[in-house]
Amino acid sequence: MSACWAAPCPEWESAVQKLLVASQKSGVGKTTAAINLATAAAQAGARVLLLESDPLGGIGAALNLAQHSQRIPLRSTGLELPGVLCPDVVPRLDVLTPYDEGACSDDDFEQVLQLVASRTIQEGYDCLVVNAPPFLGGRPGQLLQCCEDYIVVMQAEPLAYRTMPAFLEMINRASRAEGVTTRMRGILLTLPESESPGGRWESELR
Question: By the 8 A CB rule, do 151 and 15 touch?
């Protein structure tokens, strides 16, 4: 697949399922959820691309991508873009991170999203899972344009409970500004260390 990356095609109407995994803040299990969802889809037989869009690079650390034996730098395919593709991190799951070399500018990241949205790339996958930065980062519209569905990973705690409506409204505003329709598919609750399963805040949030 890497050989055709040098000539990405324009956006097109694809059948790829695209899911954005979002959160209000870091440290709530968002990256773990994105990895697990992508892995589960791959194990179910889908061909999955997991895109890292969080500059913290949690996917690379969690999956030890620096030691992956088949790393494909994007620059080696003729693209003037930072980042690396790691194919078959688990069978049928590829990981693309533009942050392998450190920082990635907004302009470069936008080109990475255009690459991911191209027919050349999407013909090779059934699912796209995007690990979003906390609060969707500085340009949420970029991410909402590339995904038709999203879930929110939220820790079962009072602050998250109170601020969730504002977070969802921010997503709706950004979607309207970009002229896209992004559907919320649910809220995934995670537990802080101090909270036991079935505790007060988990029960209230459910």
Answer: no
Whole-Å CA distances, 71 to 10, 77, 96? 25, 12, 10
Q: Is the dihedral of CA 79, 145, 61, 120 positive or negative?
A: negative
Other CB atoms within 10 A of residue 201 CB: 17
Question: Any alpha helices (H) in 48-118, and if so which ranges?
Answer: 58-63, 106-116
Q: What are the structural domains, with CATH classification, of the chain?
A: 2-205 (3.40.50.300)
Q: What is d(CA 143, CA 132) in angstroms, rounded to the nearest whole number? A: 8
Of 41, 140, 50, nearest in space to 97 by CA: 50
pLDDT 10s digits, 24-40: 988 999 999 999 999 99
Instruction: Please say whether the beta carbons of 84 and 97 come within 8 A.
Output: yes
Residues 6+ apart with CB under 8 A from 107: none
For the whole model, what pTM was predicted?
0.87
